[in-house]
Amino acid sequence: GPGTGVGVATRTRAKPKKPSLYKVLMLNDDYTPMEFVVLVLQRFFRMGIEDATRVMLHVHQKGVGVCGIFSYEVAESKVSQVMDFARQHQHPLQCTLEKA
Ligand code: TYC
User: Which atom from ligand 1 is nearest to the alpha carbon of 32?
Assistant: First the structure.
């Protein structure tokens, strides 16, 4: 205790840290067809047609929108998969991640 030179043992084990969360953001552009964006949201973010259409229209009108929130590893993987898929179909669709 105080003045005795006796401390309290703390952090005797490595602390497992809670995973940081990241938002996956979809960006608007003038060329990617709306139906393609809806397809991407359904395929990679497991959305139904209603949510996918709502998110697509939000991005179309506001410029950016959230597709979902994930661990860093999963968010990075989603971004890669979406960018690859868009490139394969020759659409300029852009997707990125941001710390939540
Ligand atoms: N603005 C596009 C169009 O008018 C549609 C679109 C929506 C594109 C969302 C990208 O993330 C996007 N065809």
Answer: 8
pTM equals 0.86
Single out the residue of 42, 47, 31 nearest to residue 89, CA to CA.
Answer: 31
Look up residue 98 and give its DSSP letter: E
Give pLDDT tens digits for 47-98. 999 999 999 999 999 999 999 999 999 999 999 999 999 999 999 999 999 9
Q: Looking at ligand 1, which residue's alpha carbon is closest to its atom 11?
A: 28
Report the candidate in 99, 36, 47, 30 with the shortest Cα–Cα distance to residue 71. 99
Q: Is the pLDDT of residue 5 over 70?
A: no
Q: Facing residues of 99 across strands?
A: 22
Atom of ligand 1 nearest to the CA of 33: 13
The answer to whether 42 and 52 have CB atoms below 8 angstroms apart is: yes
Amino acid identity, residue 48? Answer: G
